[in-house]
Amino acid sequence: MRFGKQFWVEELGEKWALQLKDTLRDPYMGKLMDFLSTEYALNTVYPPRKEIFNAFKFCPWDKLKIVILGQSPHLNGEANGLCFADRYTSTYHSTSLCKIYECIEREYCPQGFYLDFDFTLEKWAKQGVLLLNTSLTTRKESNESHKKPWKKFISAVLNNINEYSPGTIFILWGKEAQALIPHIKEHNHILSFNLPSNEDWHCPNFKEADKIIMDLYRETIKW
Known about the structure:
Strand order of the largest sheet: 3-2-5-6
């Protein structure tokens, strides 16, 4: 099979592939990958093809603690497969990422610049933060262009986390993400706030998540 077990282990990691095996075996996934092959061949698509599944590669299933849900990759070409994040080479950061940085700096380094902040957000992911967009790819011209093709896969990911990873913290920013709240099981945690786009974004979710993680694991996230 073109998209058999080895393909998905390489794309997602062994434990994510095992967790999602029923969905990955569905003919839908072959159609999705064929659709993406055509899109990358004919259009400018973000992120680069090899980075589509970075959210899973950087955050293995057995390290998962937090899910932060975004929408679509940046249209400015700086997307790296992690929601809200930018590439190492980026000289311009999106408004949302700048607001996240300002909030972190204010909360954790109030006396000066937070020089250790990683704008790729890979350090977050490696600590167990799944930075998941509801559409893992998008055409340059439209951030809604690939949303429908990805819907079944993203739903499967969220359902698996909701069911089989008790204690997960769902950080939901904005109305679209918060529509999931009624479906999240009681054995998980929900933190919510508005999207990081206004001028004065004072999001309490980072410290709220730290408190929960300290209670569960006796550690915190180095935001």
